[in-house]
Amino acid sequence: MDIKPLRYFAEVARQHSFTRAAETLHVAQPAVSMAIRKLEAELELTLFHRQDRKVSLTDEGARLFQHAGRILQAVDNARLEMDELRGLSRGEVRVGIPGMLGSYYFPPILMAFRHRHPNLSLKVVEAGTGSLQQMVETGELDLGVIVAEQVPEALESRVFLREQMMVTVSRDHAFARQAQVRYEDFFREELVMFQQGYFHRRVVDRLAHRSGLTPNIGFETNLLPLIKSIVKQGFGISTLLAMVLRDDPDLVAVPFDEPVWLDLSIAWRRNGYLSRANSAFVDFVLKQTHQV
């Protein structure tokens, strides 16, 4: 089986469109259509339903799509490794970072890494840890920051940061004068939370489940500055990493009566090829952590 038609097939399956797939692949649409027809003829199977410009996978196409991702990733890994052996690596690091860490922990690390390795390019994606984990597993990202306790078998990881989640309130909130906050008291308040898929939200959902309580969520947003603004104005409280609050005099951080610690890891595919550029980035992150 030729790899190019398989790559075209996978892109059409992702885009649900021959036109959008051609645009993404930077080829003419007839070339994509012809490649798919040849692939279907070779396999003697129909891979797509084509109705009223709507494209969807047949059952046979869905089965092939499961294999296609693994095959294409293996080919890309082999090509990258061979390029590096010839000294032709493009030196790209594709890393996914959650919003809180992307705003408060990684900027100096990213800049320092770029200064040390000026020939390497960095592609940074912001998303929740759940999404980042999936993107690393499927090969969309080379590296991703996830919560250590949730690392699946398909990934390998190294813990680089242990940080405490703190109850976050305005300076005039009653909790600001307390040494600690009970879970029961926290969940009675109106909460400002990240949406599902972010470790911030997973922590709160896990604590609520463990305590047998229902979170009173008044605001949901993935915009960290908005969360902080809402809390400052007294319209709710939240829980954020301690690092987010160190240089903000208008917010008060109070620990839970049972402290909540998060171990954060940098992860990559266990059976994938970790390029020299990505290995250098992992090593740099771990060394920076040990220097803190």
Automatic annotation (TrEMBL):
SUPFAM superfamilies per record: Periplasmic binding protein-like II, Winged helix' DNA-binding domain
Domain HTH lysR-type residues, every copy: 1-58
Organism: Marinobacterium aestuariivivens
InterPro entries, per database record: HTH-type_LysR_regulators, LysR_HTH_N, LysR_subst-bd, WH-like_DNA-bd_sf, WH_DNA-bd_sf
Domain of life from the UniProt record: Bacteria
PROSITE patterns named in the record: HTH_LYSR (PS50931)
This protein's name: LysR family transcriptional regulator
Alphabetical keyword list: DNA-binding, Transcription, Transcription regulation
Family classification: Belongs to the LysR transcriptional regulatory family.
Organism lineage string: Bacteria, Pseudomonadati, Pseudomonadota, Gammaproteobacteria, Oceanospirillales
